[in-house]
Design a protein that fits this description.
The structure is a single chain. The chain has about 260 residues and is α+β, with helices and mostly antiparallel strands. It has one domain: CNF1/YfiH-like putative cysteine hydrolases (4-Layer Sandwich), CATH 3.60.140.10. It is built from eight helices and 15 strands.
Length: about 260
């Protein structure tokens, strides 16, 4: 039996035709520990339940989402690449489109979902930005593909919303993660990586701050969101770090053809 679906609307300034929301963990049929609205087919949940959950979410969408096979990589799915491989699973960690009612989707359970939209509403993007993707350039690649889809667009024409991710008081990492971001400069590193007292080589890391600085360095001025914590907000969000066995929620965005 399903409970009422609970959706989060991004707080950002975008044209009316740009629609987006983030699911939470409630409103589906999955059993513990995936209760209840798990949308990830590779999380260990019953596939029948996951597909039913996806059907529930699809009631709020104009079309079935373009679900990605996310691998913590840097590849961006584009309209051209999807036309070149129709019907295949899209192995990518971001997607862009300028096609109305084509729904982009990112699955997460601690990594950061990042939604992009042009101020004109003509092109959108969505990226899966954990620390590997963030340090490796997934945000840069997403912006690059958006600009390629819409010639004449510049970074200042793009707005961004950072969705629910593990927060700065919960994301413990080692020296390897710090090293991955070493090219961002000492000032930002000293703010984003806080040494943990008594744990040599361990840090609490602020993914939101690292992403914000990356986006600003690309020329994007309007950046919203970044005030969630999947780890601490167990009522609303799945968290792999917290639970080890965890479902996935989705951040979705599309250009509505109805406006």
């Amino acid at each position: 039996m399903t409970s009422a679906i609970n959706l989060i609307d991004p707080i950002w300034v975008v044209p009316q035709q740009v629609r987006a929301f983030c699911t939470t963990r409630y409103g589906g049929v999955s059993k513990s520990p995936f209760n209840t609205l798990n949308l990830g087919l590779n999380a260990g949940d019953d596939a029948v339940d996951v597909l039913q959950n996806r059907s529930i979410v699809s009631l709020h969408l104009p079309a079935e989402p373009l679900w990605l096979k996310q691998i913590h990589g840097m590849t961006v799915s584009t309209p051209a690449s999807r036309r070149a491989s129709p019907g295949k699973p899209f192995q990518a960690d971001a997607a862009v489109t300028n096609i109305p009612n084509e729904v982009l989707a990112i699955l997460t359970a601690d990594c950061m979902p990042v939604l992009f939209a042009s101020k004109s509403g003509g092109v959108i993007g969505a990226a899966h930005a954990g620390w590997r993707g963030l340090s490796g350039g997934i945000l840069e690649n997403t912006l690059q593909e958006m600009l390629a889809v819409s010639p004449g667009l510049s970074p200042v024409d793009i707005v961004v919303w950072m969705g629910p991710a593990i927060g700065p008081t919960a994301f413990e990492v080692g020296e390897d993660v710090l090293q991955a971001f070493s090219d961002q400069g000492h000032s930002i590193l000293s703010k984003a990586f806080m040494p943990i007292t008594g744990s040599s080589g361990k840090y609490l890391t602020n993914l939101y701050l690292l992403a914000r600085e990356r986006l600003r360095s690309l020329g994007i001025k309007q950046i919203d969101g970044g005030d969630f914590c999947t780890f601490h907000d167990s009522q609303r969000f799945f968290s792999y770090r917290r639970d080890k066995e965890s479902g996935r929620f989705a951040s979705l965005i599309w250009i509505s053809a109805d406006t």
